[in-house]
Amino acid sequence: MMQTADFSAVPSDAAERLATFLNSHGVGFDARRDLLDEAAQAGDSSALGYPGVPAPSGADKDEARAVRTLLLGGIGDVGVFERPELNALAAALPWVYRFGADGRAAQAPVRGVLAAWVLRDLALVAGAGHWGRIKVCANDACNALFYDATRAQTKRWHSFELCGNKANVAAHRRRHAADDKGVGGG
Ligand SMILES: [Zn+2]
After folding, report:
1. Residues contacting residue 12 through CB under 8 Å, at least 6 positions apart
2. What number of H helices and E strands is found in the chain?
3. pTM of the entire predicted model
């Protein structure tokens, strides 16, 4: 049976899922964990950014890992899209349309469930020209991938609160304290 799932086709949502998936190789506090293996064991793809998609196993897990390895080697570099391995995986993981009597259409991967969903999101992100917005957190102890949705594309940390430098965090807290005072009457 084909799996369909109702994930947004908005590029920014796709980019967030893609970043979550790429982080499954183990970043920050999870530095020595591979969440792909853990999702396979737990039978749950939620931690990979794809709740509801069957947990990866067998060839699907291998292909998902291959996609992840390729993309992690090409952060900030569209040259990764010219890697023959990437397009070979994409050709091996096609999608079909299914039109329903309710007048709606759904897309479903033919096989390779998780890997196919990841490649669909990559296609959405790349189609919007947003691959360069997937960045590595500037905190060396973190290294989480994140999606920079800012217009100027100047975001440096996956989380300002967690990974921004101390001076910025302190300034941030001062601003918040001031804001709290300002709205205290409500
Ligand atoms: Zn970070």
Report:
1. 130, 147, 149
2. 7, 4
3. 0.83
Is the C-alpha dihedral spanning 133, 11, 84, 115 positive or negative? positive
CA 52/CA 3 separation, integer angstroms: 10
Query: How many angstroms does the Cα of residue 20 sit away from the middle of ligand 1?
Result: 13
Q: Could you list which residues have their CB under 5 Å from ion ligand 1? A: 137, 139, 142, 144, 158, 163
Q: How far apart are CA 76 and CA 130, in angstroms?
A: 10
Q: Is 129 helix (H, G, I), strand (E, B) or coil?
A: coil
Per residue of the chain (186 residues), give pLDDT as tens. Answer: 445 566 777 889 999 999 999 999 988 877 888 999 999 999 999 999 999 999 999 999 999 999 999 999 999 999 999 999 999 999 999 999 989 899 988 888 988 789 999 999 999 999 999 999 999 999 988 889 999 999 999 999 999 888 987 546 555 567 777 766 654 433
Gap from CA of 164 to ligand 1 centroid (Å): 8
Distance CA 145, CA 159 (A): 10
Ligand 1 centroid to residue 98 C-alpha, Å:
40
